[in-house]
């Protein structure tokens, strides 16, 4: 089991996903938009993290949300705490905070992802 966990966290995009999920549970479309990765790429990384027991998902209407598994946090507290301590405020988290404080949601992302990202990115530059 530990080997699978270490393999799962041994990828830059999966670490970026974990970093965001340590802040808030997020929908697949939010993760792919915030990280600027394709839906298939996001799904592949999420499946790897889920298979390792690090994250879990739940469905709300048509959206699938992901969060860090409570069981993972309890059983691997030292690893979880270490990962948290290594993450710093970066452009992913700054973009997440801008997204969360905006009027945008999954519906906006589905309808016009590029426009949402342009608005959020322009706010980051200011």
The structural domain count equals 1
CATH topology: Arc Repressor Mutant, subunit A
Please mark out the parts with pLDDT under 50 across 5 or more consecutive residues, or reply none.
none
Mean pLDDT: 91
Order of adjacent strands in the largest pleated sheet: 1-3-2
Which secondary-structure class do the elements indicate?
A: mainly alpha
State the end-to-end distance: 44 Å
Please tell me how large the radius of gyration is.
Answer: 14 Å
Strand content is 5-15%
How many strands in all? 3
What is the level-2 CATH architecture name?
Answer: Orthogonal Bundle
Q: How would a textbook summarize the main sheet?
A: 3 strands, antiparallel
Q: If helices are DSSP runs of H or I spanning 4 or more residues, what is the number of helices?
A: 8
**Pattern of helices and strands:** HHEHHEEHHHH
Protein name: ArsR family transcriptional regulator
Pfam family, one: HTH_5
Keywords: DNA-binding, Transcription, Transcription regulation
InterPro entries: ArsR-like_HTH, HTH_ArsR_DNA-bd_dom, HTH_MetalResp_TranReg, WH-like_DNA-bd_sf, WH_DNA-bd_sf
